[in-house]
């Protein structure tokens, strides 16, 4: 490839692919015009601005780094997000142009050079998304969108649909200008045959889209160090690392919307060094790489990374769908203190029942910590039992005992008492954040529904359609509308408390708004807690301080006994 080139020249006659040890497609699309634009939206918006400007200077697509595998076949080391988006957009553009008229000889040549010639695809993405890319984007075959296995495949399909929608109203003149702009867009390329050089260049180079994550930077650092210190075995070790990262990126593509990859890097650090205090992965690992021959560490740590991502793929995927205890912890969110315990539990081969018990215990202490809002360091209280939780001693009972001790510590036990029942009770008497209140009311809902029912299956949080928090007595006073007087006591102590909060679907919440109580009450029939309000007001259609207090006490007692 030429150092200074055009997009058409880069693609023409070549086969370009994204190696599977590289990140899959990560650019997002914002479908709502009122929301902040994402990378895919910016891509087409920038091109629109360019063709409207009537400038004679070619559009610039930046720098691309390739590794030549064989004659005419290149793996893209840096720039895969841009190249993938260019290929998706060009396919949508050619499709619309073909719908308007037959392609000219020149346009047909451009299509064959940049998209596909017979059975040769000019660009393909990572192996596990390759078939979706070929089928849906290039060959326009139907795919089951609801059955796409990875987030990256969903992004590919979403980007293509967005481009199709954007182009469907455009005329032939616009399409020709856009095609000319893209195929003649300038770019610079660097092609290497030595993988060490490619990796070293990647370390110091950012692309136009998302900056490299810490995980990507460490991957490049690992592979470069293997080239430096791997000796005669370096090529075998490089292949091993590629295989590990192929596993890692496949896992990421399934669970990235539930967990951040750089967070998993830190969790793995905490598992590998057996300490919840580990925080800065880049600094820690860079120091290790600078000390002597790091090959054994690189092999061991990449293996640990692949294991962590594999276990979390199972945890956030199949196991979360099938086990309410895991679903509950995942739904809670903000569970960084819990994840290293979970990774260890999977690594030690604990049963699903044991993992569920561990999740329940961790959920209660994380939730208490959040509700109480203490500055006391929870890590200091859990690190000892975490360190003792090992392959040789994988009994979860010491962990459960420690958490139970924190929840039931006497008030005079200052080191442990920050999370006890007294502190929890005080924390939930007044205003509770909306996210925590919704979570608590979901728990309370399952408690109400289970009363007198043997074998009751708890309702999942995501089974409630867009759950929102309703103020039964609205925040804005509606005089003579079935609520008690909005005096200062009522405003300060009763409006924002668990007794006046109710879980509703978004559509339900929008429909009742600031209506009189009797109107709201008549709609409270979908969830057990809504029907509870109807029963509480069967003899008096006034939602009073006394009833709010009574309901708050019921919810408080439930929380103290179960959380």
Defining traits:
six-stranded mixed sheet; alpha/beta; 10 strands; 25 helices; two-stranded antiparallel ribbon; 563 residues
Protein model, in words:
This protein is 57% helix and 8% strand. The strands form three sheets. It has a six-stranded mixed beta sheet, sandwiched between helices. The protein has three domains: 4-201, no CATH class; 211-427, no CATH class; 434-562, no CATH class. With 563 residues, the chain is of the alpha/beta class. It is built from 25 helices and ten strands.
The 3D shape can be described as globular
Amount of helix: 55-70%
User: How many structural domains are formed by the residues?
Assistant: 3
| Rounded Rg | 29 Å
Overall number of strands: 10
The class by helix and strand makeup works out as alpha/beta
Helices, by number, come to 25
Distance between termini? 63 Å
Would you kindly provide a brief summary of this structure?
With 563 residues, this protein is of the alpha/beta class. It has 25 helices and 10 strands.
Map the helices and strands.
Layout: E1 4-6, H1 7-11, E2 15-17, H2 39-53, E3 60-70, E4 73-78, H3 80-100, H4 105-114, E5 116-117, E6 120-121, E7 123-124, H5 127-138, H6 151-167, H7 172-183, E8 186-192, H8 195-203, H9 214-229, H10 234-255, H11 261-272, H12 281-289, H13 295-322, H14 324-332, H15 339-347, H16 352-372, H17 378-388, H18 397-407, H19 421-427, H20 434-450, E9 467-471, H21 488-493, E10 501-505, H22 506-512, H23 517-523, H24 528-536, H25 545-562
Parallel strand pairs: 2-4, 2-7, 3-8
Antiparallel strand pairs: 1-8, 3-4, 5-6, 9-10
Helix pairs in contact: 2-7, 3-6, 3-7, 5-6, 8-9, 9-10, 9-12, 10-13, 11-13, 11-15, 13-14, 13-15, 14-16, 15-16, 16-18, 17-18
């Amino acid at each position: 490839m030429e150092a200074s080139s055009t997009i058409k020249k880069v693609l023409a006659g070549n086969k370009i692919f994204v190696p599977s040890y590289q990140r899959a497609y990560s650019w997002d699309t914002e479908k709502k015009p009122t929301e902040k634009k994402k990378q895919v939206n910016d891509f087409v918006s920038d091109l629109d601005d360019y063709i409207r400007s009537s400038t004679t200077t070619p559009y610039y697509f930046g720098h691309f780094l390739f590794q030549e595998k064989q004659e005419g076949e290149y793996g893209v080391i840096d720039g895969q997000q841009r190249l993938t988006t260019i290929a998706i957009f060009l396919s949508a553009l050619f499709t619309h142009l073909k719908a308007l008229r037959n392609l000219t000889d020149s346009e047909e040549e451009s299509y064959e050079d940049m998209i596909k010639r017979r059975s040769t695809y000019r660009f393909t993405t990572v192996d596990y998304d390759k078939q979706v890319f070929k089928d849906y984007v290039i060959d326009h075959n139907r795919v089951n969108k609801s059955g796409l296995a990875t987030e990256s495949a969903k992004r590919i399909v979403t980007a293509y649909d967005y481009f199709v929608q954007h182009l469907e109203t455009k005329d032939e003149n616009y399409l020709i200008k856009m095609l000319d702009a893209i195929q003649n867009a300038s770019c610079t390329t660097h092609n290497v045959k030595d993988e060490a050089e490619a990796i070293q260049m990647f370390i110091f180079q950012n692309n136009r889209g998302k900056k490299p994550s810490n995980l990507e930077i460490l991957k490049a650092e690992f592979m470069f160090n293997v080239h430096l210190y791997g000796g005669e075995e370096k090529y075998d070790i490089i292949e091993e690392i590629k295989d590990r990262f192929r596993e890692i990126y496949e896992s990421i593509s399934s669970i990235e919307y539930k967990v951040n990859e750089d967070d998993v890097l830190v969790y793995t650090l905490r598992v590998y060094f057996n300490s919840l205090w580990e925080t800065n992965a880049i600094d820690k690992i860079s120091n290790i790489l600078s000390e002597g021959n790091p090959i054994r560490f690189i092999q061991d740590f990449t293996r640990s990374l692949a294991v962590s991502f594999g276990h979390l793929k199972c945890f956030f995927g199949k196991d979360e769908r099938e086990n309410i205890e895991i679903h509950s912890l995942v739904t809670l969110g903000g569970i960084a203190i819990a994840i290293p315990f979970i990774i260890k539990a999977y690594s030690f081969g604990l049963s699903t029942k044991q993992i569920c018990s561990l999740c329940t215990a961790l959920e209660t202490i994380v939730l208490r910590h959040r509700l109480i809002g203490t500055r006391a360091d929870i890590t200091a209280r859990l690190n000892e039992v975490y360190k003792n939780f090992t392959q040789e001693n994988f009994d979860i009972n010491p962990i459960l005992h420690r958490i139970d001790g924190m929840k039931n510590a006497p008030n005079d036990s200052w080191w442990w008492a920050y999370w006890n029942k007294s502190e929890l009770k005080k924390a939930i008497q007044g205003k509770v954040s909306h996210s925590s209140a919704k979570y608590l009311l979901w728990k309370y809902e399952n408690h109400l529904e289970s009363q007198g029912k043997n074998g009751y299956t708890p309702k999942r949080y995501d089974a409630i359609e867009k759950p929102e928090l309703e103020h039964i007595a609205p925040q804005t006073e509606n005089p003579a509308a079935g609520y008690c007087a909005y005096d200062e006591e009522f405003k300060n102590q009763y409006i924002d408390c668990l007794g006046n909060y109710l879980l509703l679907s978004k559509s339900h919440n929008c429909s009742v708004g600031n209506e009189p109580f009797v109107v709201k009450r008549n709609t409270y029939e979908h969830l057990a807690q809504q029907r509870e309000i109807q029963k509480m007001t069967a003899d008096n259609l006034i939602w009073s301080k006394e009833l709010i207090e009574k309901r708050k006490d019921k919810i408080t007692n439930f929380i103290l006994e179960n959380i």
